[in-house]
């Protein structure tokens, strides 16, 4: 069946949410708990969304929030709580590895639990609650955002033209979605930093060779040993920005990881196993302001991107939609617009904190070929691993400040 685009089937809800990644799905869950009806509109299929490999570290405030809204059961059962990270460097043949204990420094931990798993839990909760969602839609467009009757139009998976009218539109459609460009050019401001390197990320079917994540500075470039479970390791190597993944055979990857992560030093060994996925990830910092325009509210990657060092992307999306759900509830249920009015400023406080932290971690750990940079990085690494104040600053930012700080 096809409905002419000029005469779409129209329905009404309170909040139409564009994008069903973690930000959109969690927002619909939080609104549902407050009795605020919403409809999700996503251009991909659920399987595609679940197939994307993303980061795997949850801040303690993300875990607390998910637990407080009934989504903590599988995290507690299958997630892995980490007290901190290992930071290491190798210079002039000498290697040092230090454990930085977040719990000792700031009383908070982090959890290893993949974004894919968070998304799976959110999708299951949506299905249980019978909340509406349109997947595999096309031609998504936002309308009348500066009026009190904004709407979103699209063509659904069956080819039917639809319009959803709402009190508010939540733009949770990631970096490439249509929501951010719907903020007029004269209003929107952007800040951007691209880094002169990228990450080659691999998934390997091998038990992690470490209890907690290892962030390694090495003259050949940064390396990170992360994990997804007791049997799956996630590993990264700093590579040039437009590196062709075909240049990296499995053998070359393992050799580079062994060198940079310090295989053989102080008896530590890197276990190898079959590599099941490899890809190159660009590194970018990006912030768009304001995060609200009229009745459009941006959240997650639609408004900001951080480089992956420090694993802030998902946590920032969770913090955004937590603030947004509170703001929309106060406005649409209690008639109080104050939190909606301050949403952009409130969310941006954390966005800039995480933007700074992920830039700082990235700058400290990635080699640039400049000997002056190298000395500053080594000095910084010595400071955060030997000074209480330096370590506490890193720990507070990594484990995450409370939502709404
Ligand atoms: N119409 C509808 N949906 C769209 C459109 C569109 N035109 N364009 C993109 N989308 C969808 C994407 O398919 C995706 O499912 O919006 C969703 C955005 O999800 P994410 O990119 O995952 O972004 P977000 O939900 O903000 O999640 C935060 O944290 O770990 C980081 O970048 C990582 O995705 C992660 C993010
Ligand atoms: C990951 O496990 O994918 C990961 C962990 C920590 C980071 C970045 C990515 O800083």
Describe this structure in words.
The chain is built from eleven helices and 23 strands. The mean pLDDT is 96. The longest helix is centred in the C-terminal third of the chain and has 28 residues, at 338-365. Helix 1 (22-33) packs parallel to helix 8 and helix 10 (371-386) packs across helix 11. The radius of gyration is 22 Å and the shape is globular. The strands form five sheets. Strands 7-6-16-17-18-15-19 form a seven-stranded mixed sheet, sandwiched between helices. A six-stranded mixed sheet has the order 9-3-2-13-22-21. Strands 1-12-11-10 form a four-stranded mixed sheet, with no helix packed on it. The N and C termini lie far apart (50 Å). It is an alpha/beta fold. The structure holds adenosine-5-diphosphoribose and P-hydroxybenzoic acid. Adenosine-5-diphosphoribose is lined by residues 18-24, 41-44, 49, 54-55, 115, 140, 172-174, 176-178, 300-301, 313-314, 317.
Compose a concise summary of this entry:
This protein has 405 residues and is of the alpha/beta class.
What bound compounds does this protein have? Answer: adenosine-5-diphosphoribose, P-hydroxybenzoic acid
The major pleated sheet works out as: 7 strands, mixed
> Low-confidence segments, ≥5 residues, pLDDT <50?
none
Number of helices: 11
Percent of residues in helices: 25-40%
How are the strands ordered across the major sheet? Answer: 7-6-16-17-18-15-19
The Cα radius of gyration reads 22 Å
**CA-based shape:** globular
Distance between the termini: 50 Å
Question: What is the total tally of β strands?
Answer: 23
β-sheet strand percentage:
25-35%
């Amino acid at each position: 069946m096809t409905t002419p685009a000029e005469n779409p089937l129209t329905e009404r809800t309170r909040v139409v949410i564009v994008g069903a990644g973690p930000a959109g799905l969690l927002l619909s869950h939080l609104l549902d708990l407050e009795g605020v009806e919403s409809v999700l509109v996503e251009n991909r299929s659920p399987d595609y969304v679940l197939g994307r490999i993303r980061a795997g570290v949850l801040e303690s405030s993300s875990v607390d929030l998910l637990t407080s809204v009934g989504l903590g059961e599988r995290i507690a059962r299958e997630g892995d709580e980490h007290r901190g990270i290992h930071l290491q460097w190798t210079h002039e043949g000498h290697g040092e590895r230090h454990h930085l204990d977040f719990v000792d420094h700031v009383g908070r931990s982090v959890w290893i639990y993949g974004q894919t798993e968070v998304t799976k839990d959110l999708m299951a909760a949506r299905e249980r609650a019978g909340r509406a969602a349109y997947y595999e839609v096309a031609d998504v467009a936002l309308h009348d955002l500066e009026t009190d009757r904004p709407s979103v139009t699209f063509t659904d998976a069956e080819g039917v033209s639809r319009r959803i009218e709402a009190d508010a539109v939540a733009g949770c459609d990631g970096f490439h979605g249509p929501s951010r460009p719907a903020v007029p050019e004269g209003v929107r401001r952007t800040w951007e930093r691209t880094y002169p390197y990228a990450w080659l990320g691999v998934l390997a079917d091998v038990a992690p060779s470490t209890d907690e994540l290892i962030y390694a500075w090495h003259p050949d470039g940064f390396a990170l040993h992360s994990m997804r479970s007791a049997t799956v390791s996630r590993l990264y190597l700093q590579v040039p920005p437009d590196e062709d993944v075909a240049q990296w055979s499995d053998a070359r990857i393992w050799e580079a990881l062994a060198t940079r992560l310090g295989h053989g030093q102080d008896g530590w060994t890197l276990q190898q196993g079959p590599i099941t996925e490899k890809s190159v990830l660009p590194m970018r910092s990006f912030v768009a302001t304001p995060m609200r325009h009229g009745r459009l509210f941006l959240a997650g990657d639609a408004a900001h991107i951080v480089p992956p060092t420090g694993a802030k992307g998902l946590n920032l999306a969770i913090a955004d939609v937590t603030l947004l759900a509170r703001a929309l509830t106060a406005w649409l249920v209690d008639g109080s617009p104050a939190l909606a009015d301050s949403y952009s400023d409130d969310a941006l406080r954390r966005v800039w904190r995480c933007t700074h932290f992920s830039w700082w971690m990235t700058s400290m750990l990635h080699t640039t070929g400049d000997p002056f940079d190298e000395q500053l990085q080594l000095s910084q690494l010595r400071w955060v691993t030997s000074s209480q104040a330096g370590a506490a600053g890193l720990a507070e930012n990594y484990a995450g400040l409370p939502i709404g700080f």
